[in-house]
Amino acid sequence: MTVRRARNPFRFESPLEPEDLIGRGREVGWLVDAALERRVVSLAAPRRYGKTSVLRAAGRRLESEHDVVVAHVDLLGLADAEDFAARFGSAWRRAVAGRRRLRRQLDQLLGGLAEVGVTVLGSGVQVTRRPAREEAGVAAVHALLDLPGDADTPVLVVLDEFQALHAAWAQGEGVLRSHTQSPQQAGRVAWAFAGSQPSLLAAAFSDAGRAYYQQALALPLGRLADADLAGGIAEQFRASGREVGTALSPLLRLAAGHPQRAMLLAHALWDATPSGGESDNARWLAALAQVRARVADEATGVWESLSPAQQAALRSVQRHGTATAAPTSPAGVSRASRQSAQEALLRRGLVEQVEVGTGVTGRRYRPVDPLLGDWLDQRKLGG
User: For the whole model, what pTM was predicted?
Assistant: First the structure.
């Protein structure tokens, strides 16, 4: 007789299902309320903070409880206007798949756009720039962006990794705003602009020269509270025939509220704990060794991608909470160079500000990824 091994309940490699979310009820509820009020919102969080999971949970509730059409457009790696049109068209096609009138409207529109290079490809949309029609992508974007305002039901459009639009297509934000602020959509369609590079996303709404200057309500997605993580982890251990035991405290201390890293550590700890058993220090150390081995290549890649000044700044942030703790670093990098490097690390999403004091010197920072910080501590790399 074959005995099936219990499934590890802790997922860390992909977005979570709504029922598996821990400690995000407030954020999901806020997004649902904002969508029902047809607001324009922004949701910023570093990578692996659960942004996509929160958006998915809010979308699921809006669809099932409020009959809202939810179109999720992923802009990561966006190339140009044609690419935006293709991604938006594909997302809208998926969103209205079960709504006959809206699907028929879309198919008619796509048929009329064939002359500018728009074609249906499987379940998606493709836009091809033709030599004689250089503005094919822009024409397609304008036509497709009209669709949410013509819907006969509430609509939420999520533009994920929104910061990529400005980098790939400088006029894109202006084109988009001409539709989101139009009489056909203002107050009728909800928009959520999300991104995993908080400083770049914030610039879209704080720069007076940008189209969406002060045009969105911001929802920062922070780390999880230890109490929420502790309750969620203990519950899932218990539900699968294990007890988390004394290993919970060092797990929470290392994870420092980072959602994905907490799930990775819990996953490894669960694997190290036999069915019917309880985690202890020995099992925690075994799990930690497994996780450290797993992230070593990733951490090495990040470290080697940094300039000497950025390496010094990152190491100082981990050790002192700021890149400017001393006039010079052990590596001989000046304070001014480390300050500039710290700003670059902020833009890249490798460090984050955790405390605002008086002036620049009162601010404190930390690596976004606590396991990168742990990797630095283990190797005592100069900074």
Answer: 0.84
